Amino acid sequence: MIPSINYNFMNEHFTFIKPSIINGTLPSAIDISKYIKNPLERIDNTLPYICQGGIINFSRNVEIEIKTGDYYICAYVSKGKISYSCQNKIAEGSDGFVILAYKNNTYTLKTLSREATVHIYFISGAATDSYATALHKNPNNQLFYSNHFDMKGFILSGLNRLDTYLASEDESSLFLESIIFQYIFVRLLAKQNATDLLDNSIPVYLTKLKQILDTRYDEYHTLENLSEELKINKYRLCREFSNCFKVSPLKYLNNVRINKAKELLLETNDTIVSIGEAVGIDNTTHFINLFKKETGETPLKYRQSHLSNSSDNTMLFPTPSVLF
């Protein structure tokens, strides 16, 4: 049976289309044992307040209709692949996929992999209204906002702590929940601002070049091979990219690699050698020297200094240099 603490809310907001609920029994393919109702009432309508949230695990393909009502939904996919749709807009995403759904709408969630884990939270509050309004200004976000985020380890660390606070009856937990969610919304806005920048009449080949450097940083790149791939003269490519993004393509690539290395240093136990290789720098000495030049610390020192104050080797809030 659906746990009594969830039943009324689930019945109001979730319609299980495939598989369906039979005689009030939730299909075994859907596990909501870690999905709970906040035991505390909101203090006021100022801060983000989570009414219900946590982890839902799926062990087969499912289809669910979700009515948001008076709440926003913030969802994060930590495993598997899903699609999310409203009217004529459909978005698909896998690990690291984030969705913000607006109030008073109906959405359809489908899992596209046999197994999936989705963190889903129903949120309200004036601050949440402000964040959602800022995202909604973009024409692409009229029905909902979706995007993919790196730094999975950091986000899961924050969500795990959020779930711990959500289960607590200590009133201070309400403020801690709010802090975590406002941090998440700020990241959404920062990501959106970066997307907006690329939407403003930047030539397609520059957008493509930036995408290559952002996602294929582990590959070997030269201006010559980038020029050949994009069919643009290398001098023109370098000049126009530098004018647009205020940094040369290869310098930008180094920045991407160093930021990714920071993430791996803090969220994995991988060796310095393997991290250098993972970000496209096979020469370990060169990797260490480049990292120190950009950050002022060697990779090992960076890892030690940033994790030294954390008893469980996790950080709820990455430093600004890691975030942006």
UniProtKB/TrEMBL annotation:
The protein's matches in PROSITE patterns, at most eight in alphabetical order, are given as: HTH_ARAC_FAMILY_1, HTH_ARAC_FAMILY_2
Query: Which InterPro entries would you find in this protein's record?
Result: Homeodomain-like_sf, HTH_AraC, HTH_AraC-typ_CS
Q: Which Pfam families match?
A: HTH_18
* Identification of the protein by name: Helix-turn-helix transcriptional regulator
Tell me the superkingdom of the source. Answer: Bacteria
The Gene Ontology terms for molecular function here are: DNA-binding transcription factor activity; sequence-specific DNA binding
- What keywords does the record list, in alphabetical order? DNA-binding, Transcription, Transcription regulation
The organism named in the record is: Pseudobutyrivibrio ruminis
- Looking at the record, the residues that make up the HTH araC/xylS-type domain are 207-305
